[in-house]
Amino acid sequence: MFLSGEKIASFMDGVKDVQIQSAGVDLTVKTIYEFDTPGELDFSNESRNIPKGNKLDFEEKIHLTSGSYRVVYGESIKMPENAIGLVLPRSSLMRMGATLISALWDPGYHGRGQGLLVVTNPHGIILHKNARIGQITLIKGVRTGKYEGTYQKENL
Length: 156
Fold this sequence. Notes:
By secondary structure, the protein is mainly beta. Helices cover 6% and strands 39% of the residues. The protein has a single domain (5-140), classed as Deoxyuridine triphosphatase (dUTPase) (Deoxyuridine 5'-Triphosphate Nucleotidohydrolase, Chain A, Distorted Sandwich). The protein has helices spanning 5-9, 91-95, and strands at 12-13, 25-34, 54-56, 61-64, 67-73, 76-78, 83-89, 98-101, 110-111, 114-119, 125-128, 132-140. The strands form three sheets. Strands 2, 3, 5, 7, 8, 10 and 12 form a seven-stranded antiparallel β-sheet that branches. The chain has a three-stranded antiparallel β-sheet with strand order 1-6-9, with no helix packed on it. The mean pLDDT is 94.
């Protein structure tokens, strides 16, 4: 069962009314990073290396050229322990030649999530500070869980 946007917003901080949709909540751009080193991932996570990236400073808007960027969202969330979260790009972002890639948001996760912004438009895109780029939706499950991974309370 999908939760309503109003219900999802009740688990979040920093949400304005315009962000609340019927089946989700729009996520905004807080911070954008360029990748500056390779990442590394193995089976056990012993060698896991997540690039910190180069923070792109912008006051009002920024022109992003074709490429991949790590985006930190402006809103934080305390995921309920009986739901998972999915983030999809807003259709306006796709119509501009860009998309968001996201992993599953686990039950019990608490933090300010991140996404992979991929710009394929050869002319790039222009994003304004706090632009709404994605939408999170929550799917309620029958089992409960508690996220205890590395990224608990990230970006808070």
